[in-house]
Amino acid sequence: MELLRTEGLSKNFGGVSAVSDFSFSLEDGEISAIIGPNGAGKTTVFNLVTGIQKSDSGKLFFGGNDITNLPSHRITALGMSRTFQNIRLFENLSVLDNVKVVYGHKINYGMFSEFFSLPRVKRQEEEVHHRAMKILEFLSLEKYERHKPGNLSYGLQRRLELARALMAELRLLLLDEPGAGLNPNEIQELMETIRLIYKERKLSIIIVEHHMELVMNICSRIHVLDFGKKIAEGTPEEVMKNEKVLEAYLGDVEGVC
Questions:
Q1: C-alpha dihedral over 118, 122, 124, 128, to 10 degrees?
Q2: DSSP label of 252
Q3: To which H or E segment does residue 28 belong?
Q4: Could you tell me the pTM of the whole model?
Q5: Do 163 and 175 lie in a common domain?
Q6: N or C: where does the chain have the smaller number of CB atoms within 10 Å of the terminal CB?
Q7: How far is it, in rounded angstroms, from Cα 145 to Cα 1?
């Protein structure tokens, strides 16, 4: 069953085409990737899909709903979440609170209830705490619950970003360069973590990534962008043999092959 579909997405910045007529689909339960050289438009696609930026033209459908140019919070509420290239954690909050804060939009009590500590306030806070702890345990982060993000290794901060994304009630997880800044051992750990999320959480996943080892070992279908246009689509094996893809990566062929 189709979960996500884009039809002719386009986005220009000051007359420069960042994404041009980009169309693709994702099946429910599929892991796919969007790859391409730097500046190819990969992150812009993520921004358009998640409502962070509005497209100039084209259509977006998620779970059978037309989400074209919906604001990001409404798209998130439908079951879509993402991580970012640059880590975006609240440095002044603990690891646990970084995860709990994501669930704030689900809280349905007001200041009056909170001030008088009504039973439903305590009940909802306990539910959020339990949910956050379960996610930290799932990603082996529970022993760091009271730590500040800045005291964690870079690899653990990346994992904390995944925990924050999982705090939402998800159907689709978008990972924007999750391997950025990680060493080879951490890349292997990341691959196992993504496999675990896919297996246990039954999520569809789209990855934007430069580490081809990660993409080729995780994804069943790959879409290749170059200068904002899709130049190839297929299985990892098909993409690796595509002449247009190899040409787009000239100067970085070793990273692709």
A1: 160
A2: -
A3: none
A4: 0.86
A5: no
A6: N
A7: 38
